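Work Package 3 (structural annotation) set out to generate three-dimensional models for the target panel prioritized at the project kickoff. During this period the team completed the workflow that converts sequence records into discrete structure tokens, so that structures can be stored uniformly alongside our sequence database. As a representative example, we reproduce one entry of 580 residues exactly as it appears in the project archive.
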Amino acid sequence: MRQYSTDGEEGTRSSAASAAERGWDESLYQDRAEVSPPGRADSGADGGADGGADGGGRRSRGSGGTGDGGDGGSGGRAARRRGHPKRRRRVLRWSAIVLAVLILGTAGAGYLYYQHLNGNLVKDELNLGDSKLDKADPNAHGQTPLNILLLGSDSRASKENIRLGGSRADKDRPPLADVQMLLHVSADRSNMSVLSVPRDTRVTIPKCTDPDDGKVYPATTDKINTSLQHGGPGCTVATWEEMTGVPVDHFMMIDFSGVVSMADAVGGVPVCVDKNVHDPRSKLKLKKGTSVIKGEQALSWLRTRHGFGDGTDIGRAKAQHMYMNAMVRQLKSGTKLSDPGKMKDLAEAATKALTVDKGIGSVKKLYDLGNDLKRVPTKRITMATMPWEYGPGGSYVTPKESDADQIFSLLRNDVALDGKDKKKAEASKSAQPTRPSRPKAEIPVGVMNGTGTSLQPPVSGRASVVAGELARKGFSQAVADQTPQSQADTTVSYARAEQRGDALAVAKALGIPERLVKHSAGVQKVTLVVGADWREGTAYPKGSGGGDGAKDEHKAPKSADALRGDDKKACMEVNPNYTW
């Protein structure tokens, strides 16, 4: 597994530093009873010290408090969100989320007593912020990309969750969104990119309003996992949009307890470690090489932080990526889920476990979503981690400005992280017009300012400056549009195929690369968005992230530690302090 130095650059280690030595905030992981690596304390210690990849209280169903009883109704959502021990969301990993969706799509489980299963689902508001992004523009074929935020919480609100996840001392603490992954499916469904963000990433959390009680949470700067405490998952969605500029279409959170039966249902998932590993916190114990893990052992794999890499969330994200890839390969290789009794139980567990936004608040919609995901070939699935660097003091991380902006830009522009999209895009241009359909002075052009990102404020007046330059070059109908624009990349869009030549003429006049000229059903005329990659001057800067220069500009940067879905040889690097 790739390692990083304290300034965020790639490097290698001859021995594994502890998370504390690397400056990671250990207070987020510790239970009241300290747990030491194998050989240093009781290896049978409670696995509850790890605060990250496990579940927490999402809701209570019935009086048992395990999440498996009767419907708790919608009236207690506000109390659950604020951390009432009987009402709090109990959420697990993205892996169970994706597995639940794939199972529903693969096996048709969504049609088992349809209305009953619909009643199991809990629905919530998608976005609690004031500045919601517009959906991504459709491409020339009317297809739009799909962005789903997958969330997991660290809270524990029942005896069963504490048994599996531990951390008894955290039972009454409001939950944190310790697992956050954006799943981006391309408009043509040819590829999928999954981007993880470390839970200790320091970001701007925008103003959010709780829809249940009207409480307003002011904008603040904090670690991204605290966004769940600002009214619910809709505030985490708002935070992601603020950070990335990527419009989020849906979110999904899943209950902790469902992952055990789901892992068993697919016959287990193969994983690999490069040494024997034993992490008492997560209770993971495996021999060197490949093992097929099920049930609670799968849960332990997803929870393990100390046993992998340098003991921080970065290694754990890599392990989650490996698990998810292997799970998808299992399902696509012919795993059968045909036992009606098992499917009934699985459908109950999956739907009781899920909290989703209202846009996908039915089993039918989840079934359709599963079918959409199934269309993506395994070899075109790419898992990555947001490029990051340590903040001052090392207790948190921040997005690594140039590399993080690059990967956010790829997602915004529906460019696959595996670097295999460029040839396809060039081939699609062959029969399209390249000459203007009319004189420059007759081409209406709208110019918009999209220079602001979560990392940089907008540059005032950019639309007017560039519109003036176009007018000077003969485009007398170029007009600055003052409409707020969240897109952070320079693009020239056109509405109809015959306008492509007009758009190319605009791009050529300003030195904008041809690959940034796009056919979009979301505009009415030739529209230029001046992005964060062009913050000064009247000519588009050569070598910018959106340019048509270096090959690496069309895929995830090396610091994202990308993993392809068809990589069967990937093996987790075990922390030397956690071997046996």
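The first strand starts at residue 3 and ends at 4.
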